[in-house]
Amino acid sequence: MQSNPVRIKEQKQNIYSGIKELRERINSHFDKLEQEIVKELNAAKLDLNIKIEDLFKELREKSERIAVLQNNISYVKNYASDLQTLVGSKKIETKIQCEETYIQSLMTDERLKQLSLKYSHNEEKETLFQSITSFGLMSKESSPPSVEIKLEKNEQAQTLTASFIPKSVDNVCAKLVRKFQIPQVKSNENEITGCAMFPNGKIIFADGEKKKHATFNCFSFKGEKIWEFTDEIVLYGPRGVAVERNGIVYVATGNRNCIVAISPDVKKVADFLTSDDGIEKPFKLFCDSNRDLLLVVECDGDCALFEIK
What we know:
Residues 19-72 form a coiled coil. Keywords: Coiled coil. It comes from Mytilus coruscus. This is TRIM2_3. The chain is α+β, with helices and mostly antiparallel strands. The chain folds into 2 domains: 4-114; 192-307, TolB, C-terminal domain (Neuraminidase, 6 Propeller). Helix content is 36%, strand content 25%. It has 3 helices and 13 strands. The chain has helices at 4-79, 82-108, 123-131, and strands at 147-153, 158-164, 192-197, 203-207, 214-219, 225-231, 238-243, 249-253, 258-262, 269-273, 282-288, 293-298, 303-307. A 4-stranded antiparallel sheet has the order 3-4-5-6, with no helix packed on it. Strands 7-8-9-10 form a 4-stranded antiparallel sheet, with no helix packed on it. It has a 3-stranded antiparallel sheet with strand order 11-12-13, with no helix packed on it. A hairpin with a 4-residue loop joins strand 8 (249-253) and strand 9. Helix 1 packs antiparallel against helix 2. The longest helix has 76 residues, at 4-79. The two termini are 23 Å apart.
């Protein structure tokens, strides 16, 4: 039951991570839609500007031609002979008819109409806002207890005893989160002798590398390397690895018959338990952070349970 609050905290974090991931997906999708509509908007604006500029260019050219015709008409009236006036008038009349035809074409092909941009909202968007009123529905659930309380009676007294109810193997499942490769060290060959996980999700591996020296690699939950620590004397012959709640790493060094403690910042290494504490050829470690207990298992099967203070 002591682990129930921890599990609830993990569930809360997982739910929040899922909500955050959904929000990021929604933002990414709408960002993409926004980029597409802005691209269409810019293209439409450019197209209208080109049409307007082309029309202005044609009108300027026609205006210049009409000005030339007006000058020609004035010249013919003032300086030309009757014959020149007759011939010139015919030519000018033909050109005037061409310009009149152009002006009429402007009216019929609607190029003089006012151009503008128009945007229509997607009606499904409003329906989406109305239909989705929350990210999801939160609920609280209960499951069968992990402990069983029994009332035992005897002739002298009655006592309450509690025992854990084992979880059925039929309900156990696992999901692969990710895979990653531990980088090889000097000899290009790893010899992983132990691993453990920090409370914050970081993972540490002990690499004996043919027992020449010990290398400890710490990785994030995503497989990113955080730090590396190498030692050839104090951590000679590493075996089991365990991590307690404050981030202190405990290493079983079988060749030195002791348990070594490494500080969370990897700046200090010290002998934690030695042969004076009854340690002899330690092989595996297990740390119960909830009860601050450290279990040491030796090669010959002898075990020792220590309380961490």
